[in-house]
Amino acid sequence: MPKLDKRLKAVAESIRCKVHADIGSDHGHLLKALLKSGRIEHGIAIENKKRPLENSRTTLAGLSADVRFADGLAGLCEREADGLSICGMGGESIAQILDAFPDRVPSNILLQPNRRPELVRQWGLRSGHHLVDERLLLGRWPYSIMRFVRSEGDEDPVYMELDQEAALLFGPHNLRRRDAPFIARLRLESRYLLNLDRLAEDSSVRLHAIQRVLSDHT
Q1: What pTM, to 2 d.p., does this model score?
Q2: Alpha helices in 24-112 (DSSP H)
Q3: Could you tell me which residues come within 8 angstroms of residue 40 by beta carbon, excluding any fewer than 6 positions away?
Q4: CA 34, CA 31: separation in Å to the nearest integer?
Q5: What would the pLDDT profile of 144-168 be if each residue is shown by its tens digit?
């Protein structure tokens, strides 16, 4: 897909719907790639900063796309889109955007937090959206790419029989797969945390969760 880095290519590969909204569209390249590849029929770019808004307008000119100046889901009507993506923000910001207008959240959601992915997973649990797939993309930073689907009140089965705290921190699908890059990443973080002179409370929680996961792996 043209003009997409490895991270956004992985996001695009998980999207296929009729009308897709991208919040924080920035340059608009994700929607352009989705439209050009036929993965979506119409795109809605939503941006709350003027320079990225103009970038998206330039990128998406002549394509089947709307470019809107709005704050998050305030720029989307209920049931207007059947797909949604939010990429490159912190988990706190993503959860706040989704919580602000829960009735406007489509049934299919692709989220890529840059930090604190556990807050996005917590949003899924409390909002009734199942985490149906997750990929950990290792680059300069570990990027979690999560796909959620709205459910009708059932508890998310992917968390069943797992260490709940560890599953929220590191991803239930990752814990079930336990592939080599994921385990290697946990070992690297464990060594880093163990070498610190003092641990903040949240770092201590992460370290103990990592140790439990690695203990189960051996």
Answers
A1: 0.92
A2: 29-36, 50-60, 91-100
A3: 15, 16, 17, 18, 19, 20, 31, 34, 83
A4: 5
A5: 999 999 997 788 999 999 999 999 9
